[in-house]
Amino acid sequence: PSRTFHGNNRLLTSQIISHYESINRCKKELPEYFNFASDVLDEWARLEKDGRKAATPAFWWVSGEGEEVQWSFEELGCLSRKAANVLSELCGLHRGDRAIAVVPRVPEWWLLSVACMRAGIVLIPGTSQLTAKDIWYRLQASQAKCLISSAPLAAALEAVLPGSPFLKSKLLVGPGSRAGWLNLRELL
């Protein structure tokens, strides 16, 4: 029996299972290259724009204080392209480079996840509970070229940054500024 996911009657469980079973049985060809940002998000934005898909939020975030951020597929696509440009052009990252994000789960965390997918940058997520020693180890082991953090967390991270020879850039998300750090909000 099929049932709907999240009230969307176009996405039936049996259809999804059938699709993946056909891939597993080699009845559907897998693309040589797949990029979630361009192949899924941009396609959904196009379908909404053409009126072939009902407009629904691609992203909806609510903070503990009740602040809401809501992006359509088109807005998420546009913002993620801008963020990918910031990472590529201003942070100097290329396809395959690694970036460590020590950021609370704010909207920019998801935006940067999509931007990294779009640009082919490997995002290494880190929790705000990591110690300076944990961050230093991750920077060395991953050879990350960019560190992404919020202003309050950046102060604690700066102690380990001089010992990281691979680090090229530091990017802040959210409000605030620090010397030597780029601010994503300002750059977008």
TrEMBL record:
Assigned EC number: 6.2.1.2
Any Pfam family hit: AMP-binding
Annotated ranges, domain AMP-dependent synthetase/ligase: 55-162
Substrates-to-products reaction catalysed: a medium-chain fatty acid + ATP + CoA = a medium-chain fatty acyl-CoA + AMP + diphosphate
Top EC group: ligase
Keyword NAD: no
A GO molecular-function annotation: medium-chain fatty acid-CoA ligase activity
GO biological process, one term: acyl-CoA metabolic process
Keyword Nucleotide-binding: yes
Keywords tagged on the record: ATP-binding, Fatty acid metabolism, Ligase, Lipid metabolism, Nucleotide-binding
A GO CC term attached to the entry: mitochondrial matrix
Homology family: Belongs to the ATP-dependent AMP-binding enzyme family.
Protein name, UniProt field: medium-chain acyl-CoA ligase
The species this protein was found in: Malurus elegans (Red-winged fairywren)
